[in-house]
Amino acid sequence: xxxxxxxxxxxxxxxxxKLHILLIGFVFFFHTEVIAQVHPTEKFEFLQNRYNGPxxxxxxxxxxxxxxxxxxxxxxxGIVFNFSNLKYNTNNKIVKITLTLKNKKSTYxxxxxDKNKPIPNIKTGESYGVVFAIASKxxxxxxxxxx
Length: 147
What we know:
Layout lengths: L6 H9 L1 H13 L10 H12 E7 L5 H13 L3 E9 L5 E9 L4 E7 L8 E6 L2 E6 L12
């Protein structure tokens, strides 16, 4: 037997049961699910930009002026960039260069020289707050974000 105070509630439910069924049907019918998918390339680019600072490429064709422009650009990003031992061959290709990069967390110095052969492309920049300079033939951006 139901308690006395339950009878008015049952009457209300009996009276409005069609409305309840309609509301339940409405909720189920118009229930939608939004699924956001991100293309793997977009995810990689987002993560790369999230964990990497500026990354620039120095080529064998760089002039002193271009190196100084790069120095200024990296300085605006908080990276001290210096170059020395700069030597060119008769074809105006860089054959020797010493790079020094420094930020709040790290310092990196490296020299590229192979007799009179032009230097490889060199990626310079910052990853996870640590500065680096590496020949691009060994450079894999996926390794910078821990993939």
